[in-house]
Amino acid sequence: MDKTLLLQDVLTHLQADLEQASLAALTAHEAATHEENVAENKYDTLGLEAAYLASGQARRVEELRQTLITWRQLRPRPFDEAQGIELGALILLASEDGHEQWLFLGPQGASMKLQHASQSVQVLGNAAPLGRLLLGKRPGDEINLPMGNRLQVFEVLQAL
Questions:
Q1: What is the pLDDT of residues 98-133, one digit of tens each?
Q2: DSSP per-residue string spanning 98-159
């Protein structure tokens, strides 16, 4: 699998999410400032509710903008055994029941599932619990991830 093409897929999805969120923020702002939403009495909260929605949408747009900037700075490198898994790594992980999954580890903020080279790849941020545990690991290492009141065990099969 080509990590550079995978990164481009992530960036494309993030850009689409940003465009959609920007449109939603604009719509929410227009609703909040529309003359029909001016309060007629102290119990009329439609305008206030629209303002809260617009504020939340604006924050979401800014978060996506920052995530996109951070992901654009990622430069995936080939796996280095001495460094172990780092940002930009493509990892094949196996659970204790034998289920295998590909993960693409990057900066936080872009959790998504992609189809790449006929494989399903879970994009994972380094701030996620599993992402933090993967950093520095090598093929053959075991990872113990607490999941509620039980422990889930994974093995790193491959890192690219």
A1: 999 999 999 988 889 999 888 999 999 999 999 999
A2: S-EEEEEEESSS--EEEEETTEEEEEEETTSHHHHHHTT--TT-EEEEEETTEEEEEEEEEE
Cα separation, 160 vs 153, in Å, equals 21
The answer, yes or no, to whether residue 38 has pLDDT greater than 60, is no
Residue 14: which residues within 8 A CB-CB, separation 6 or more?
A: 64, 67, 68, 71, 110
Do 21 and 54 form a contact (C-beta atoms < 8 A)? no
- How far apart are alpha carbons 107 and 105 in whole angstroms? 7
Model confidence pLDDT, tens digit, residues 140-160: 999 999 988 999 999 999 999
Which residues, in sequence order, are bridge partners of residue 94?
A: 100, 155
* Distance (Å, whole) CA 1 – CA 7: 11
CA geometry: angle at 126 spanning 93 and 111, to 5°? 80
| Structure confidence at residue 99 (pLDDT) | 95
CB count in 10 Å sphere of residue 48: 12
Is-contact 133 143, C-beta < 8 A? yes
Do 157 and 139 touch, CB atoms closer than 8 A?
yes
Indicate if the pLDDT at residue 52 is higher than 80: no
